[in-house]
């Protein structure tokens, strides 16, 4: 089905061939994201020349990606798809609410960043992926891991620092990883995961084009608005476009980088525009609507699988809690928080399912009850699981454990049982 992705627009190029037509003015979205009162300006025709051949790249405006489907009044999802989306979003919300309880009871340590309010982004993208596709996350990574298929038990146990966690208790809240599910990690430093995701996408392309393997795997890199002023972001956009890598860069723009407003820290707050600057599509979508996110994700993932290269997607969303559970959340205006709370993505999906007779209230309540029981069981499992042994401290640190050197007795320190007990002479 045609969407704005397929309405390709030529971009800019050499001085002698540059053609600038009057800009197209699009009305701002009804929800007035970012508080914009002005119209969005999208150049209608510009030319971009690669060193060897001309490239065409679409530029897509806010909330335009489902325009054609709205006109036809066709449903965007089937009942089965709707129930999968709803269950995944409920899992993310219920899990994070439970994390808050456990954190304040002293079951978790360090910083814990919750995803409440942003579920439409994770669900909209990840539930379209296969197990062999890769996901790279940030420090706000619990729900990305759950959406990718990592069990609630494994994620909760990791948060509890237990050996049954997906990283055996050594990763904690900000470093969820699962080789089995190609969840390539949460990363504590902003922008840190984008080069890893770019490398994963390069691996897929290398397998397909050099090793001649049947590989259509794609990578989705999630990061926030604060990351988009960092160098790695631009370097990786350039490399991904240059090599036409199968990657989707997903900006979860929740309007705040800890306590810094996106509008105060960025010269041009419309992040999606940075995509066309590197020769890839840039899309700006309502990140509080899982169906709109899903339609954009379908197009971006399909392009990547076809070998057409990367896409930059800006999902404007909002977190319902502070930056972390240690954040009193005093900087954001109460009216702003209330405005976005009224646009809860789970409530919106529930309304869509019921009004379009895709699901009954009873069916949705059954899902909610099922998830509540699943999360409760995950807590019980994590609480009962053992702590990692002290010997585990030396694992996954150095490739060669003998790098710890030789002790006074002439033996390798790592072979001394007292070494991991903290009593060896060093």
UniProtKB/TrEMBL annotation:
Keyword flag Coiled coil: yes
Keywords: Coiled coil, Oxidoreductase, Pyruvate, Thiamine pyrophosphate
GO MF assignments: pyruvate dehydrogenase (acetyl-transferring) activity
Swiss-Prot/TrEMBL catalytic activity: N(6)-[(R)-lipoyl]-L-lysyl-[protein] + pyruvate + H(+) = N(6)-[(R)-S(8)-acetyldihydrolipoyl]-L-lysyl-[protein] + CO2
Residue stretches in coiled coil: 357-384
EC number(s) on file: 1.2.4.1
CDD domains registered for this protein in UniProt: TPP_E1_PDC_ADC_BCADC
Stored Pfam families: E1_dh
Dehydrogenase E1 component domain sequence ranges: 88-388
Example GO BP: pyruvate decarboxylation to acetyl-CoA
Co-factor(s): thiamine diphosphate
Function description: The pyruvate dehydrogenase complex catalyzes the overall conversion of pyruvate to acetyl-CoA and CO(2). It contains multiple copies of three enzymatic components: pyruvate dehydrogenase (E1), dihydrolipoamide acetyltransferase (E2) and lipoamide dehydrogenase (E3).
Subunit architecture: Tetramer of 2 alpha and 2 beta subunits.
PANTHER family: PYRUVATE DEHYDROGENASE E1 COMPONENT SUBUNIT ALPHA, PYRUVATE DEHYDROGENASE E1 COMPONENT, ALPHA SUBUNIT BACTERIAL AND ORGANELLAR
The protein's name in its UniProt record: Pyruvate dehydrogenase E1 component subunit alpha
Annotated organism of origin: Brassica napus
